[in-house]
Amino acid sequence: MKKIFLLLLAACTTSIWPQKANIPGKTDWFDPNKPATTYCNPINIGYNFTTHNHNGIPESRRSSADPVIITYKGEYYLFATNQAGFFWSKDMSDWNFVYGSFQRKPGDDDQCAPAAWVVNDTLFYVGSTWNRDHPIWKTADPKSGRWTRHVDKAMLPTWDPAIFQDDDKKVYMYYGSSGKLPLVGTEVDYNTWLPKGNQADYAQLYKATEVEDIQRPYGQIKEVAVLDPAAHGWERFGPNNDMEPAPWGNFIEGAWMTKHNGKYYMQYGAPATEFKGYANGVHVGDNPLGPFTYQKHNPMSYKPGGFVIGAGHGNTFADNYGNYWNTGTCKISIKDRFERRIDMFPAGFDKDDVMYSITSYGDFPIVLPTSQRDQTKGASSGWMLLSYKKPVTVSSSEECLEVETHRMDNGGKKVYEKFCYGPENLTDENIQTYWSAKTGNPDEWLQMDLGRQMEIKALQINYADHKATQYNKAMDIYYQYKIFMSDDAQNWTLVVDKSKNDKDAPHDYVELTKSFKARYIKMVNIHNASGLFAISDFRVFGNGLSEKPKAVTSFKVDRNKLDSRNAMISWKKQNDAVGYNIYYGIAPDKLYNSIMVYGDNTYDFRGLDKGTKYYFTIEAFNENGIGIKNKIIEVK
């Protein structure tokens, strides 16, 4: 009896004071259960694969765009185009998928460019449609994936919708996507979701079938934003704002409303999602339906250079500490010109109530919020890119192929290009290229040489899903791998173990719990989600432990005298620099926009506004840090 009692006591003691458990995948430098303090664009969510033959293109590929992030009951919810559901997070880093599809037929879209907003403590949701066939959904328990219909059929044919509830509880809808027509907005009745006013005034709208008729103002529907590309260079269509006249018009879309200090900020995306200059602009007014005035600092969010390119069509939200963030759409546009991802940048309103978003080093690790903070300088971690142009050896490489592409750089026509999948693509900071092994089998590998010992703090693995066979959502999509590090390429230390991972993470960002000094990094595939083991860029962040670059010399901005929307920017190339960041803005203390440039000493900039005086500066950066900014120059 005494022996049995002692055994029971031991069992109870173990349950009350548990022994230290072995966490699967935990190493001295990586803990899969420890929350990250940083994140890295593109946002690392399980981007859905398109439906079969989507847009008439048979190739399997992932995509999403047009994000909306909102807070609900202290947590963050991310909705985006065609995800068969949505994502939630406690910290804006670790995103969890909730299946919640509204797809009716196998080839249909789920929800394009959806809108979400908390109205009267309930989460409301609606997708894009030109028809009078979409419900307005609502839920008080979004994690269940279940929604009820607030309205069976919304009579407003809203494409790229946005919902906004003002402080007086009035509800507004904004919508539109067109190369010819403005964005529009209206107050809606909360119970019926019909536009306010005499319904007879909307008779023509309710029976209209053409977009040109649908997106016009009727009754109390107001024009809220329109493009002026003749004055605003960044609103021009084209890969570098260089297609005039625009073949389909200069697109305005992606409405979003933010209220700050009694002012209403009408946000919009332009000029088209498939271009590097896709950006968010803003007009400002004193009422939710305007009139609105073009903000002098525009675009408000802009990222035409770097690994992540594009920042248009998203939303602005405040985190749980009161800091603002701006989301957007970044492009890949190879397998489909609508092959896209999602990014997110620190944003806010300065002392003059100017709305801004900071995208400088916006595809390097960004510090997550833990309190309210000043974001006018961004939230960069200071961890630098260590992997640019570093040599990589691999287990195998797929042969070059003649591939039908849909790049808008070639006018959007179907063309064939020769694509090669060599290891040099792993470190070129080009999201449109990638390396692919010949198989997706375990033990395919890549090995990078940093050239010398460096301090490694984080990694980002951007999968390319080459020759994938998956279409639409499946719940068994994930990647598994191990990462080793070494000083001599002979004696290896296991630093990151994701051999038990079961979460879909196509842009897997791994923050080490403590830094590791090494020269060589090796990644070994264990399980690939679909297709061949293929990676766009294997990106390494930390500190190169050497000298920062010197200040840039011979910096010039030559504004075109015939067309002041354009300027040629030049500087002297430096051997100690990996790249350069050009900053510009409407005042010396408002240099909020930036352009990242690798491997060049000129930039053809076509994003200025006529009649606006600008200020410019530049800095060089390398693995070791950021050089001193140049003296600010005025450009009239």
From TrEMBL:
Asked if the record carries the keyword Signal, the reply is yes
Residue stretches making up the F5/8 type C domain: 426-543
> Which SMART domains does this entry report, sorted A to Z?
FN3 (SM00060)
For the keyword Signal, the answer is yes
Q: In the record, which residues are listed under signal peptide?
A: 1-21
Q: Which family does it belong to?
A: Belongs to the glycosyl hydrolase 43 family.
Please state what the protein is called: Discoidin domain-containing protein
Key words of the record: Carbohydrate metabolism, Glycosidase, Hydrolase, Polysaccharide degradation, Signal, Xylan degradation
Organism encoding this protein: Flavobacterium soyae
| InterPro entries for the chain | FA58C, FN3_dom, FN3_sf, Galactose-bd-like_sf, Glyco_hydro_43, Glyco_hydro_beta-prop_sf, Glycosyl_Hydrlase_43_Enz, Ig-like_fold
- Domain Fibronectin type-III, residue spans: 551-636
Enumerate the SUPFAM superfamilies for this protein: Arabinanase/levansucrase/invertase (SSF75005), Fibronectin type III (SSF49265), Galactose-binding domain-like (SSF49785)
Where is coiled-coil annotated? none
